[in-house]
Every structure is written in structure tokens, then in C-alpha cells.
Design a protein that fits this description.
Distance between the termini: 64 Å
Order of helices and strands: HHH
Helix content: over 70%
Structural class: mainly alpha
Strand content: under 5%
Radius of gyration: 20 Å
Number of strands: 0
Largest sheet: none
Number of helices: 3
């Protein structure tokens, strides 16, 4: 293969990898939105409980986390697409990654506690 084809293929693969990563961020954000609906509305509807506010609060928090992830996904995609033509790398924000991880962990534990407590 000529060198120019290899470079073209590498560039194409890099763009496609960036697109797959963006789609993964989008799936994650949408999954949090689905959890928001499930925990906030569906679980209390089928659970044998009259107290729904803990589920609603946790569900709303999952919804907010989903929005944060979706907004970050778009911002990250723009940064990566701007950097690729220059041959630069843009790392993900440690603050956003750790913040979303911590939020997801806390919400997961809260969900377990509320489900087990009712």
C-alpha cells in the first residue's frame, strides 16, 4: 500500500473512533435518562409502597446526571473534532469523569438503599 493510503486510512479510522466514542457518551447519557424514568416513576408504581418521594428524588438526580453527560458529550465531540485536523489530542476532563463516576456511584447506592428499605 502506498504511504498516502495508510495515512488516509489512519485518519479515517481516527475520525470513526472519535465518532464511536461520542456515540458511547450519548448512549450513557440516554441510559441515565432511562434510569430516571424507571427509578422515579416505574418502580414506585409497581412497588408496594405509599412513599414515592425517595424514588422521585433519585430519579430526578439520574435525569440531571443524564443531561450533564449529554451536554459534556457534545462539548467533547466539538473539542475532538477541532483537534483532529490539527493532529492534536484532547484528553477528557478528569473533573467531569470523576464527578460523573461519583454521582453514578452515589445514586446507585441510594437506589439500592431505597429499594431494600421499602
Amino acid at each position: 500500500m502506498p504511504a498516502t493510503t495508510e495515512i488516509g486510512d489512519a485518519t479515517r479510522r481516527t475520525w470513526l473512533a472519535a465518532e464511536r466514542t461520542w456515540l458511547a457518551w450519548m448512549r450513557t447519557g440516554l441510559a441515565f435518562e432511562g434510569l430516571a424514568l424507571a427509578v422515579g416513576k416505574l418502580v414506585p408504581a409497581v412497588a408496594d409502597t405509599t412513599t414515592t418521594w425517595p424514588y422521585e428524588v433519585i430519579g430526578a438526580a439520574y435525569g440531571v446526571l443524564g443531561v450533564v453527560v449529554l451536554v459534556y458529550a457534545v462539548a467533547r465531540r466539538r473539542a475532538v473534532e477541532a483537534a483532529l485536523p490539527r493532529g492534536e489530542y484532547v484528553s477528557a476532563s478528569d473533573g467531569v469523569l470523576l464527578g460523573t463516576l461519583a454521582a453514578a456511584a452515589v445514586l446507585g447506592l441510594a437506589t439500592v438503599v431505597v429499594v431494600l428499605a421499602t
